[in-house]
Write a structure and sequence with these properties.
By secondary structure, the protein is α+β, with helices and mostly antiparallel strands. It is 22% helix and 15% strand.
């Protein structure tokens, strides 16, 4: 597996997008689309004020966490934790809460967003589908020591 998928939590980070999360600088309008109307939670990642660490949904750009091609990334460690203003890491809150989307950095509370979205995610397996019909008219011919198989087409297969 690619060293970034597991070694830098990239796979977890990308799954966070599927669950409605964004980077620290993702706009409220984009989050609203991703999170199906729950943008008021501002479910973003968080980067420490000194740029030493970031939560799973943090991103590498010019905000103190620059991308490094060597792992582990010692310049800005990506924690296996969601942003959460009620929890600390290394003496700093793992998220921030603002009441206005004009404040920067935007609020970061991925934990609260996940609590709301988990019932939706957990219900994904309720997708209903119908089985295709059985095939018929199977015919096997031999040609130059190879089997050629054909059958009648089935609707909705």
């Amino acid at each position: 597996m690619d060293k970034y998928a597991v070694g830098d939590l990239t796979a977890s980070h990308e799954l966070g997008h599927v669950l409605g999360g964004g980077h620290p600088t993702t706009t409220p309008a984009t989050l609203d689309i991703w999170s199906n109307g729950a943008a008021e939670l501002y479910s973003r990642g968080h980067i420490a004020g000194d740029g030493e660490w970031q939560t799973v949904m943090g991103s590498y750009d010019d905000n103190g966490c620059d991308f490094s091609t060597t792992l582990p990334n010692t310049d800005c460690v990506r924690l296996p934790l969601w942003s959460d203003p009620t929890k600390n890491f290394d003496g700093e809150a793992r998220g921030v809460t603002f009441v206005s989307e004009t404040q920067v950095p935007y609020s970061a509370d991925m934990v609260s967003a996940l609590e709301i979205h988990m019932p939706t995610v957990a219900a994904w397996d309720t997708y209903s589908y119908s089985s295709p019909g059985s095939i018929s008219g199977i015919n096997v011919d031999q040609c130059y020591q190879h089997n050629i198989i054909s059958w009648n087409s089935v609707t909705n297969a």
